Amino acid sequence: MTGGSFVRELADLRQKLVDMGKAVLTMVETSVEALLSGDEEKAWWVINHDKDINAQENQNVDRAIRLIAMNQPVAGDLRFLASSLRLATELERIGDLGANLARRVLGVAKLTKEGAEIGPTPPELSSMAQAATSMLAKALAAFNERDSVAAELVLTLDDVIDDFNRRVRKLVLGSIYANGHLAAWGLEIINTSERLERLGDHATNLAEEVIYVAHGKNVRHKY
Which of 28, 93, 152, 221 is most buried, most CB within 10 Å of its CB? Predict the structure, then answer.
């Protein structure tokens, strides 16, 4: 592969990852909309699109491996390609989380249809969902713009998501202790909160990759 071809292939891979990021952000945003509104149609849309993200992961991993094998890149190019393998996997897992959030929407809807007792959605859960989505959007923007400073700021947001998770769990468990009939509903809400917390973790991982590509500095497991 000629030098010009290699540069074009790198640019194409970056764009494919940007497109994949946009797709998973749409999935997460739609699943959060479904969560806050109880919209089952939106939830099903997210679930049905998960397979597209899986296919994109496989394609992008294959592209990165082929470029490494054929070009023996060094320095920044090698860091980008190594990071691409992790980025594709992180984005696929975020897509999985979007689908899992959508399934929680369907779970609560099923309980309602079955006549189970349902509690009010904790305001903290709504705030957590919006904060986690915003954190993901910022991490993807940092990657798109190759902005390591913005990526550093994303790393500071994870504690906020973790705090929301603790608060939601405490509130829901308190509701269950006061009224055992809310147990099935409470489990769905706790599972939802835990998935939003994981979304924050994956956004952190994305930001860490941006820093690694930009500076060769591995900050994983530091935060």
Answer: 28
